[in-house]
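Good morning,

Attaching, inline, the backbone tokens for the sequence recovery test we're adding to the shared suite. The designed sequence is right after.
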């Protein structure tokens, strides 16, 4: 047991949230909830990135001020969090005055430490990424590899961060901490980038006004990425009024991000922290893209599945389940409404939902809801399971971790078929055998619910309440006789009469 600080990226407020943002938030939330179950003192941070060109340009296009657009969309992101059942402890906005002051403080320290200088810069720039692209990143006819829009040639007088000074220390960081970045192939990618030779990066922008002012030269604002990355640090200083959590939670145990922002997190970020004499995060986990029609789902590409629409139809738990089950966390994967419906039906309604209804109905029918206080069977299927699941979650291998639990859901459904309690119930001579079977089913169901509590918080809460065993402490995720005494009636966990999709 210890402290566990976990973050999502802070999302750009140039547009409304979409499934990609929901995805990262859900994954981080599952890990945060899992650690709370293990008794850790968790701080889970998410929020929005409000400055920079992506937001300034979107606001201009809509005839709004950047602040008005940021206010509007920040509210949408904030409102998304409870809809996803995200258990974030704070929601940061980079327009928070406390954040801005702290960014100025840290970046001034970096300057005082000798890592900032003024120079000229010219390069190919993508305003949607807010990033200069190196020659080998550029697509044919000067296009952004992510947004496929034409890059602009930008030239300006900027302050620079001496990233090049950190080449050796970064290589050492990766050598000393093979798990600093996961999955492994992403660490290799980051290391290859570092070994390819680091160039200094622009720390400020002179033309833009929508950002945090450079305190030593107020004609400039900080380049949005430095302002944004520092959110992970600044938030701790003001998230709880009257308290500074930095001491307690810094450095973070885990940053969860998508692969589009690997370079910033795996290269710039640790260098920036080193330049400020701050400890670097323990681990950064990089997941893949949710794809639709083979392309990254993205608002600017116009191929998005709206998480709120999905939640309205299937419920929050179904969304959380689907994105972590259907796409292997860490890899790219396609999502679609059809696949959603299929998973919902096969795994949630017919798998877990049906198991729960059957078990509870049988205990009520054959034993008046009283669960026999006898030793459960199926030890060989459950012994060691909780440890294995936790070990996988510790490596952020969420999909295989879930598969271990769903194997047990299927095992319990097979056990119902094998033992046929309805036949046992016909002959009083089988009463003892029926006791064991019912006790095993209820206890198996309870253990599965505790293990799934981080992914399906709503469903498992209902289920565990029905069993009169609401405790989700992870230590309780083993088969134990007598934990559940009495079961109540249970309404279907995953109703099958889902409303049809609204026409597009
Ligand atoms: N503001 C920056 C991040 C700053 S963090 C210090 C940014 N914002 S963003 O709104 O573009 O969000 C990017 C993140 O959203 C990705 O890294 C990923 O976590 C998530 N996703 C956005 N689209 C996604 C998919 N199509 N698939 C999976 N995740 C996606 O970059």
């Amino acid at each position: 047991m210890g402290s566990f600080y976990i973050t999502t990226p802070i999302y750009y407020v140039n547009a409304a949230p979409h499934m990609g943002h929901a995805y990262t938030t859900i994954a981080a939330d599952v890990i945060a909830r899992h650690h709370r179950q293990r008794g850790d003192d968790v701080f889970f941070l998410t929020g929005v990135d409000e400055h920079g060109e992506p937001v300034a340009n979107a606001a201009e296009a809509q005839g709004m001020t950047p602040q008005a657009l940021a206010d509007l969309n920040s509210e949408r992101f904030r409102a998304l969090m409870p809809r996803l059942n995200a258990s974030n402890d704070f929601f940061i906005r980079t327009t928070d005055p406390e954040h801005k002051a702290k960014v100025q403080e840290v970046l001034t320290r970096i300057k005082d430490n000798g890592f900032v200088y003024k120079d000229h810069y010219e390069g190919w720039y993508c305003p949607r990424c807010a990033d200069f692209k190196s020659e080998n990143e550029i697509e044919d006819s000067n296009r952004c590899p992510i947004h496929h829009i034409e890059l602009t040639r930008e030239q300006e007088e900027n302050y620079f961060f001496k990233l090049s000074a950190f080449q050796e220390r970064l290589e050492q960081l990766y050598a000393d901490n093979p798990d600093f970045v996961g999955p492994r192939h992403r660490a290799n990618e980051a290391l290859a980038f570092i070994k390819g030779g680091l160039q200094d990066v622009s720390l400020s922008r002179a033309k833009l006004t929508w950002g945090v002012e450079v305190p030593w030269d107020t004609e400039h604002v900080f380049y949005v990425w430095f302002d944004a990355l520092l959110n992970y640090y600044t938030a701790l200083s003001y998230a709880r009024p009257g308290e500074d959590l930095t001491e307690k939670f810094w450095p973070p145990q885990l940053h969860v991000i998508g692969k589009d922002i690997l370079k910033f997190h795996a290269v710039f970020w640790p260098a920036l922290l080193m330049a400020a004499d701050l400890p670097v995060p323990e681990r950064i986990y990089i997941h893949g893209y949710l794809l639709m029609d083979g392309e990254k789902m993205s608002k600017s590409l116009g191929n998005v599945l709206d998480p709120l629409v999905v939640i309205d139809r299937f419920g929050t738990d179904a969304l959380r389940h689907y994105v972590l089950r259907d796409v292997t966390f860490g890899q790219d994967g396609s999502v679609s409404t059809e696949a959603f419906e299929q998973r919902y039906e096969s795994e949630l309604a017919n798998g877990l939902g049906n198991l729960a209804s059957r078990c509870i109905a049988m205990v009520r029918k054959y034993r008046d809801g009283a669960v026999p206080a006898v030793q459960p069977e199926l030890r060989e299927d459950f012994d060691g399971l909780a440890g294995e699941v936790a070990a996988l979650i510790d490596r952020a291998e969420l999909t295989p971790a879930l598969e271990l639990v769903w194997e047990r859901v299927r095992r319990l459904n097979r056990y119902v078929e094998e033992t046929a309690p309805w036949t046992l119930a016909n002959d009083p001579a089988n009463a003892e055998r029926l006791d064991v079977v019912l006790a095993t089913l209820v206890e198996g169901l309870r253990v599965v619910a505790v293990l799934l509590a981080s992914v399906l918080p709503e469903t498992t809460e209902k289920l565990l309440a029905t069993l009169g065993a609401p405790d989700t402490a992870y230590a309780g995720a083993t088969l134990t006789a007598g934990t559940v005494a009495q079961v109540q009636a249970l309404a279907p966990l995953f109703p099958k009469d889902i409303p049809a999709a609204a026409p597009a």
